[in-house]
């Protein structure tokens, strides 16, 4: 069987030994020096000013929206646009925080919002935030998306949980918006078992993210920020400040194990991205000769950090034919992310508006993906190609 994922870590045997040694010798397991180091190194890797570590990518998404609310950059009932095909933790916080979800149709050739779709939607309806999903290693033309958002006073957020390491020119995805989230779930590009990060260049955003992450207090904020909060709220001493809650927050903190694993796995990220991209291009070149498979067109991506190997077929009948081949060959497959989000039960329960998104429906009904990871052998890749023969 070729599973969606083979191992929990890159260089797994070596990594488990390092993890065991770390657990035996460390005295502190709550968020501490390893987490701070991971934040620093991850920010440096992305050429970002700040990175704030969380216990999951979903928590990172929640924290980004709560941060905007806490800083009064948006209000209850602000309208948040999002990619119609995405993960639940991109959409659920919008609803949970009293914001208005506005799904946006996709371009079938990029699995992302197209420029024409975005501009057309903005002519018809106002949105305050665009929470875009960089899906499966792909992305929209984010430099152009950023320009559109700035020209329309829209805050751009990126869910980059599936595209860690992808680039447009020399700029990494996840760094185009005001904030960008990343995930280190065990099945993602690099694993800390569970874990997430938010990237930002904004100092005030960084401070509020740390407050949102830790119950609404400022223990992990800078000395200047702590001082300003104490003065603003007439807190007489640092002793009292430690148990003062300044704004709405949660317990979204990671552990030192998260930080340690992140520091170890980050060393391999360039190697991982290169191998994933090589696998993707090998399969994509083969698929380009099969006119039953829709070809992805993302020439603006200088690096495709392929999360998985997605296949979109011309119709349902073709999709079922290839799906049967994969299952017979014991190659594990799954839907494209979680399909069209507007068709999910939770969305229908909490959102009264109905939407007609034929492209997103086609992707949902006529597509699937199999795993892509550095441990895939040439023979396994050829086994995948054997299932894709016209």
Molecular structure report:
This protein has 390 residues and is an alpha/beta fold. It has 15 helices and 13 strands. The strands form 3 sheets. A 7-stranded mixed beta sheet has the order 1-9-8-5-4-2-3, sandwiched between helices. The chain folds into 2 domains: 12-266, Type I PLP-dependent aspartate aminotransferase-like (Major domain) (Aspartate Aminotransferase, domain 2, 3-Layer(aba) Sandwich); 269-387, Aspartate Aminotransferase, domain 1. The longest helix is centred in the last third of the chain and has 19 residues, at 269-287.
Provide key terms for this protein:
2 domains, single chain, Aspartate Aminotransferase, domain 1, 390 residues, seven-stranded mixed sheet, Aspartate Aminotransferase, domain 2, alpha/beta
Fraction of helical residues: 40-55%
- Based on helices, strands and strand pairing, what is the structural class? alpha/beta
CATH topology of the largest domain: Aspartate Aminotransferase, domain 2
Content of β-strand = 5-15%
CATH class of the largest domain: Alpha Beta
Number of helices: 15
Mean pLDDT: 96
How far apart are the termini? 22 Å
Low-confidence stretches: none
Number of domains as seen in the coordinates: 2
Say which CATH homologous superfamily of the largest domain is assigned. Type I PLP-dependent aspartate aminotransferase-like (Major domain)
Query: Could you give the order of strands across the largest sheet?
Result: 1-9-8-5-4-2-3
> Which outline best applies?
globular
Most strands sheet: 7 strands, mixed
CATH architecture assignment name of the largest domain: 3-Layer(aba) Sandwich
Order of helices and strands: HHEHEHEHEHEEEEEHHHHHEEHEHHEH
């Amino acid at each position: 069987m070729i599973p969606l994922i083979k191992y929990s870590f890159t260089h797994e045997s070596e990594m488990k030994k390092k993890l065991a040694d770390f657990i035996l010798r460390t005295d502190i397991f709550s968020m501490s020096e390893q987490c701070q180091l991971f934040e620093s190194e991850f920010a440096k890797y992305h050429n970002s000013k700040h990175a704030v570590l969380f216990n999951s990518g979903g928590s990172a998404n929640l924290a980004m929206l709560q941060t905007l609310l806490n800083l009064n950059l948006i209000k209850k009932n602000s309208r948040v646009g999002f990619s119609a095909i995405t993960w639940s933790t991109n959409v659920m916080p919008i609803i949970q925080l009293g914001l208005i979800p506005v799904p946006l149709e996709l371009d079938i050739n990029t699995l992302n919002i197209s420029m024409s779709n975005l501009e057309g939607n903005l002519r018809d309806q106002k949105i305050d935030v665009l929470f875009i999903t960089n899906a499966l290693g792909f992305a929209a033309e984010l430099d152009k998306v950023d320009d559109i958002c700035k020209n329309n006073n829209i805050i751009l957020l990126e869910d980059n949980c599936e595209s860690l390491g992808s680039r447009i020119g020399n700029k990494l995805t996840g760094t185009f918006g005001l904030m960008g989230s990343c995930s280190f779930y065990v099945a993602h590009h690099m694993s800390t078992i569970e874990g997430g990060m938010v990237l930002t260049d904004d100092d005030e955003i960084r401070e509020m993210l740390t407050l949102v992450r830790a119950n609404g207090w400022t223990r992990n904020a800078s000395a200047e920020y702590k001082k300003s909060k104490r003065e603003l709220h007439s807190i007489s001493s640092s002793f009292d400040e430690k148990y003062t809650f300044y704004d709405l927050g949660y317990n979204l903190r990671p552990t030192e194990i998260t930080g340690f694993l992140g520091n170890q796995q980050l060393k391999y990220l360039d190697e991982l991205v290169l191998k994933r991209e090589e696998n993707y291009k090998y399969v994509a070149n083969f698929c380009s000769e099969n006119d039953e498979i829709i070809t992805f067109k993302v020439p603006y991506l200088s690096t495709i950090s392929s999360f998985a190997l997605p296949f979109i077929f011309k119709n349902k009948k073709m999709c079922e034919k290839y799906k049967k081949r994969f299952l017979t060959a014991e190659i594990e497959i799954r839907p494209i992310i979680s399909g069209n989000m507007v068709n999910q039960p939770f969305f229908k329960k909490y959102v009264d508006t109905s939407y007609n998104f034929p492209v997103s429906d086609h992707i949902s009904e006529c597509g699937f993906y199999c795993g892509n990871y550095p441990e895939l052998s040439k023979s396994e890749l050829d086994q995948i190609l054997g299932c894709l023969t016209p």
